[in-house]
C-alpha cells in the first residue's frame, strides 16, 4: 500500500541533508518567514500544499461555470461586461494557483487529471445551481465574500508562491464581492419581482456559503497541522463567525434578510453565533450528490477533451518551428 | 476639425461608452444616416462578443478562456460605444438598442451571426473578422465624424491584438497536425460564404462619404494579408461560393433569432427594470 511505503520512508533514518533541511524549515516556520520553492521542506508539507493549492485552483476553474452560464443572458451591457471580466479573472486566478502548485513539482496536466478523475476536490459551493440573475449578486456577495475571509489570512501563508498569488487574488476578489453586492442593491431597490429574486438568491446561497469554511473545528482533523505550519491562521469556526458578523451588517443596507433567526452576538465569547448548518447536506454534496456535481465535471471534461486536438496542434507547431530554427 | 473636442483621443484619455453617454445627455444628436452606420458597426461587435462569450469556461486551455474572453470584452466595449452614439438619434440608450430591438432591426452581418462550431471555426471567423475590422478601423480614425474616429482610435489597438491572436492560431492549426489542418480548412470553408457581405458598398455609404469607410476599399488589403497568412499556415484561400446575405438590411441568418432570444430574455422578462 502506498501509504505504508510513505510511512516507512518518513520514518527512515534521515540523511544529514534532511536534518539540516528540517532545522532550516523549523527555523523559518518559527520566525514566521517564507519557504521558497528551492528550499527543503517536509514531504507532508509539500503534499498538503499541493492538495490545498490545487483544490483552490480547481475551485476557480469550476467556479467559472455557474457565472459563465449568465454571460450570454446578462440583462444590461454594462453588467455583461463586468461579468465577463469577473469570470475571466477567475480563469486568471486558476492560472496563478496552478503555477504556484507547479513550483512544488506537480505539473498542471497531472492536476487536471486529478480533477477529471475525481481524485481532487473543489469547493462544494459550485455544485449548487445559479438559477436567476440575482444569483450573480449572491455569488459575488456571499461566495466571494466568504472566499475573501478565508483567503486574506492566506496572503501570509508560509509558502512564498502561494502567499504572493493570494495577495493578487484577494485584490480582485474584493472587486468581485463589491460587484455582487451592487447587483443585489440594484435589485433590492428595483421592482417587487427583482427584490423577490434577490431575497430568494440570498436564501439559497446563505447556508452553502457558510459551509465554505469547512466542517466545525472538532470535525476538521487536518486544520491543526496546517496551523502549525503557518499555512492556516484561523480555525474554520473563527472565520465563519467573522463572516456572519460581516454579512449580518451588510444585509441591512440591502433591506433584505438572512434566512437564519439564530444569528446573535455573544457578549461573553465575543463571537457571532448562527443557526446549526445541515452538515449532512454538506457531506452529501462532497460525495458527489449535489445538484450540479455531475454537470460541472461533465462540462470540464468536455472542454478538456474537445481541446485536446488544439493543444496537440500547438505542440506539433512548436516542435516544427524548433526544428526549422535548428536547421537554420 | 477642432483639437479641443472632448472626443479626441489623447494618451490616457480613451473614449469610454460612459463618456459618449454623457455627451449624448448633454445634447449631442446625430443624423439618421450616421446612426444607421454606427448601428452596423455596433451590432457586428455586439453579436460577435455574444458568440465569443460562450467560450469562457469552454476553451481548449485556460489561457484561451482568458484570451477569447478578452476579445469578447473588447468587442462589447466597441459595441457599447457605437450603440450609445447611434441611440442619440432616437433618444435611446445602448440597452434599449441591444435588448429591445427585434431581428429585422439589427444590422449585423451574417458572418458574426455564424455559430462558434469547433475552435477552428471560431478562429476562422476571428481571422476574417479581425482582418476586416483592422482595415476598417484604421481608416475610420480619419472620419469627419469625430466620435466615430475616437471610438475607432481606441478600438484599433485592441483589434490589432485580436488580429495577432487569430493569425497565431491560424498558423498553429494550419501547420500543426493533420487533424488541426483539416479542421482549420473546414472552418475557413464554412465561414467563407459570408465574407463578401463585409465588403459591399451601398447607398448609405455613398451618402456618408468622408464619414463612413467604403467597405470595398478594404478588400484588397484584406485579401493580401489573408493570402499571406494562409500561405504561411499551409492553407489556401477557400474556393467556396459566396452566399446571398442580408446586405445589412432587415434580413438575417436563421441564427440571429436564437442569439437574441438568449441575450434578451432576462431584460424582457422585466420591462422597465434597471440592473
From TrEMBL, chain A:
Signal peptide: none annotated. GO terms for cellular component: cytosol. InterPro entries: Aromatic_CoA_ox/epox, Ferritin-like, Ferritin-like_SF, PaaA, PaaA_PaaC. The keyword Ligase does not apply. Its EC number is 1.14.13.149. The keyword Ligase does not apply. Keywords: Oxidoreductase. Coiled coil: none annotated. This is 1,2-phenylacetyl-CoA epoxidase subunit A.
Automatic annotation (TrEMBL), chain B:
Pfam families: PaaA_PaaC. It comes from the Bacteria. InterPro entries: Aromatic_CoA_ox/epox, Ferritin-like, Ferritin-like_SF, PaaA_PaaC, PaaC. GO terms for cellular component: cytosol. Gene3D superfamilies: 1.20.1260.10. GO terms for biological process: phenylacetate catabolic process. NCBIfam families: PA_CoA_Oxy3. This is Phenylacetate-CoA oxygenase subunit PaaC. It comes from Arthrobacter mobilis. The gene is paaC.
Amino acid at each position: 500500500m502506498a501509504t505504508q511505503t510513505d510511512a516507512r520512508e518518513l520514518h527512515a533514518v534521515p540523511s544529514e541533508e534532511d536534518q539540516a533541511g528540517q532545522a532550516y524549515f523549523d527555523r523559518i516556520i518559527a520566525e514566521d518567514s517564507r519557504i521558497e520553492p528551492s528550499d527543503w521542506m517536509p514531504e507532508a508539507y509539500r503534499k498538503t500544499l499541493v492538495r490545498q493549492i490545487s483544490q483552490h485552483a480547481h475551485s476557480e476553474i469550476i467556479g467559472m461555470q455557474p457565472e459563465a452560464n449568465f454571460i450570454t443572458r446578462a440583462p444590461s451591457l454594462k453588467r455583461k461586461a463586468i461579468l465577463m471580466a469577473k469570470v475571466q479573472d477567475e480563469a486568471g486566478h486558476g492560472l496563478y494557483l496552478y503555477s504556484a502548485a507547479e513550483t512544488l513539482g506537480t505539473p498542471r496536466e497531472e492536476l487536471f487529471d486529478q480533477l477529471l478523475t475525481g481524485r481532487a476536490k473543489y469547493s462544494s459551493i459550485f455544485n449548487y445551481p445559479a438559477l436567476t440573475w440575482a444569483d450573480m449578486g449572491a455569488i459575488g456577495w456571499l461566495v466571494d465574500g466568504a472566499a475573501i475571509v478565508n483567503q486574506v489570512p492566506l496572503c501570509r501563508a508560509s509558502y512564498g508562491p502561494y502567499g504572493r498569488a493570494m495577495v493578487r487574488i484577494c485584490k480582485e476578489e474584493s472587486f468581485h464581492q463589491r460587484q455582487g453586492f451592487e447587483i443585489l442593491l440594484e435589485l433590492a431597490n428595483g421592482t417587487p419581482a427583482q427584490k423577490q429574486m434577490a431575497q430568494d438568491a440570498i436564501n439559497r446561497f446563505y447556508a452553502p456559503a457558510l459551509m465554505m469554511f469547512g466542517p466545525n473545528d472538532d470535525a476538521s482533523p487536518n486544520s491543526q497541522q496546517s496551523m502549525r505550519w503557518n499555512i492556516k491562521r484561523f480555525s474554520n469556526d473563527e472565520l465563519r463567525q467573522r463572516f456572519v458578523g460581516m454579512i449580518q451588517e451588510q444585509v441591512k443596507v440591502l433591506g433584505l434578510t438572512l434566512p437564519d433567526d439564530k444569528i446573535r452576538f455573544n457578549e461573553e465569547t465575543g463571537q457571532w453565533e448562527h443557526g446549526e448548518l445541515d452538515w449532512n447536506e454538506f457531506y452529501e454534496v462532497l460525495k458527489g450528490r449535489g445538484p450540479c456535481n455531475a454537470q460541472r465535471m461533465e462540462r470540464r471534461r468536455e472542454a478538456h477533451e474537445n481541446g485536446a486536438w488544439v493543444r496537440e496542434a500547438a505542440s506539433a507547431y512548436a516542435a516544427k518551428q524548433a526544428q526549422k530554427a535548428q536547421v537554420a | 476639425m477642432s483639437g479641443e473636442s472632448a472626443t479626441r483621443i489623447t494618451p490616457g484619455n480613451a473614449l469610454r461608452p460612459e463618456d459618449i453617454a454623457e455627451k449624448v445627455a448633454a445634447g449631442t444628436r446625430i443624423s439618421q444616416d450616421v446612426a444607421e452606420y454606427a448601428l452596423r458597426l455596433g451590432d457586428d461587435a455586439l453579436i460577435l462578443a455574444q458568440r465569443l462569450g460562450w467560450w469562457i469556461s469552454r476553451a481548449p486551455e485556460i489561457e484561451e478562456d482568458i484570451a477569447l474572453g478578452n476579445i469578447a470584452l473588447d468587442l462589447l466595449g466597441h459595441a457599447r460605444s457605437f450603440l450609445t452614439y447611434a441611440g442619440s438619434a432616437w433618444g435611446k440608450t445602448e440597452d434599449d438598442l441591444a435588448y429591445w430591438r427585434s431581428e429585422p432591426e439589427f444590422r449585423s452581418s451574417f458572418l458574426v451571426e455564424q455559430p462558434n462550431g469547433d475552435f477552428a471555426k471560431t478562429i476562422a471567423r476571428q481571422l476574417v473578422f479581425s482582418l476586416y475590422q483592422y482595415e476598417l478601423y484604421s481608416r475610420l480614425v480619419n472620419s469627419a465624424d469625430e466620435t466615430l474616429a475616437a471610438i475607432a482610435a481606441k478600438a484599433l489597438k485592441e483589434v490589432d491584438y485580436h488580429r495577432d491572436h487569430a493569425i497565431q492560431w491560424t498558423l498553429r492549426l494550419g501547420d500543426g497536425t493533420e487533424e488541426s489542418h483539416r479542421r482549420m480548412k473546414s472552418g475557413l470553408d464554412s465561414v467563407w460564404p459570408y465574407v463578401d457581405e463585409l465588403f459591399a458598398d451601398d447607398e448609405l455609404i455613398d451618402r456618408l462619404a468622408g464619414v463612413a469607410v467604403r467597405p470595398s476599399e478594404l478588400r484588397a488589403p484584406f485579401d493580401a494579408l489573408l493570402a499571406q497568412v494562409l500561405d504561411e499556415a499551409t492553407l489556401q484561400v477557400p474556393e467556396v461560393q459566396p452566399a446571398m446575405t442580408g446586405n445589412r438590411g432587415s434580413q438575417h441568418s436563421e441564427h440571429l433569432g436564437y442569439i437574441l432570444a438568449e441575450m434578451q430574455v432576462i431584460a424582457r422578462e422585466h420591462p422597465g427594470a434597471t440592473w
